[in-house]
Specification:
about 325 residues, alpha+beta, Ubiquitin-like (UB roll), Fumarate Reductase Iron-sulfur Protein, Chain B, domain 2, 3 domains, five-stranded mixed β-sheet, two-stranded antiparallel ribbon, 7 strands, globular, binds FE2/S2 (inorganic) cluster
Length: about 325
């Protein structure tokens, strides 16, 4: 192949200063991954470049980093594929994490959130303890198969837009891990888990941007499993949180008139009187801009929407 330009983020806490990019040129062979090139840079040009790696087989998850603006595994990202789109390769540390040095980040908050979601099976205490393992059918295992393949690379956390706005958000990795147990036929702590997950920073704080699902190198699909946790919460009558009420209000409005009643939804979602009053000025502004009609009318063909709702309810 040819000479490829790498722009690598550098930050040395010992010398201080802001982070900067440093350029390296690497002779790349056909089939080289980003990690192969990083190893060439470290071995042949600059031993101070710092990054994490271990398995080189997309199994350990330690080499996740931002590559040309998206989080990927360096060991499974081919340089040739990147060059079809980009002229040079930019490497940055994971987002949403404090940087320790160069491409290495501090994962402390990440592991604390994993610990917070009870990352273990809680069997039914009333059931007799089996002589050997607790069995489940292949179909039951299929429910949690995707989440069980997570390699804890934290690519999903790095590209999570909700976490960027609020660092208390549990974030996709911990929530997907929670579904690993909440969705398991052998676990009996659904209620306990969900009671925590519906609180602030939990399942209702995901904005469904699907970035996590898009960047996950193992197709764990965290966003889809967060939605499954929401369904579980609603099926368990956990409907008091703003998020749950927002969903129920949305469904009610569209199911009735075929379109969203923008004026009614926030009032339905928020129960607190003070919070309701604080929304009045926004409502007035919306009304003056013509975005809030005085009377919410059904759309033509609303009966068709109602029929779809009825069918779905029946199922
Ligand atoms: S080095 Fe283990 S996943 Fe890349």
């Amino acid at each position: 192949m040819a000479e490829v330009r790498f722009n690598i983020y550098r930050l040395n806490p010992e010398t201080g200063g802001d982070g900067r990019f440093q350029e390296y040129k690497v002779e790349c062979e056909k089939g080289d991954t980003v990690l192969d090139c990083l190893n060439k840079i470290k071995g042949e040009q600059d031993g101070t470049v710092t990054y994490r790696m271990s398995c080189r087989s997309a199994i350990c998850g330690s080499c996740a980093m931002r590559i040309c603006g998206h989080t990927r595994l360096a060991c499974s990202t081919q340089v040739s594929g990147l060059l079809e789109i980009y002229e040079e390769i930019t490497l940055e540390p994971l987002q949403n994490f404090p940087v320790i040095k160069d491409l290495v980040v501090d994962m402390k908050a990440y592991w604390e959130k994993i610990e917070a979601i009870m990352p273990y099976m809680v069997p039914d205490a009333g059931e007799p303890v089996p002589e050997k393992e607790r069995l489940q059918s292949p179909e039951q295992f299929d429910t949690v198969f995707e989440v069980a393949t997570c390699i804890r690379c934290s690519a999903c956390v790095s590209d999570c837009t909700s976490l960027e706005a609020d660092d208390k958000f549990l974030a996709p990795a911990a929530l997907a891990k929670s579904f690993r147990f909440a969705g398991d036929s052998r676990d009996a702590a659904d209620k306990e888990r969900l009671t925590e997950l519906v609180k602030e920073g939990g399942i209702w704080d995901c904005v469904r941007c699907y970035e996590c699902t898009q960047v996950c190198p193992k197709d764990v699909r965290p966003a889809e499993h967060i939605i499954q946790l929401r369904e579980k919460a609603l099926n368990n009558q956990m409907e008091k949180s703003v998020g749950a009420r927002h969903v129920l209000g949305f469904m009610e409005s569209v199911g009735h008139s075929g379109q969203l009643d923008e004026g009614k939804l926030p009032m339905f979602a928020v129960k607190n009187i003070g919070a309701k009053i604080s929304m009045v000025p926004i409502g007035i502004k919306m009304f003056l801009k013509g975005k809030l009609p005085l009377k919410h009318k059904p759309i033509p063909g609303a009966e068709d929407v109602q029929r779809i709702y009825k069918k779905l309810e029946g199922e």
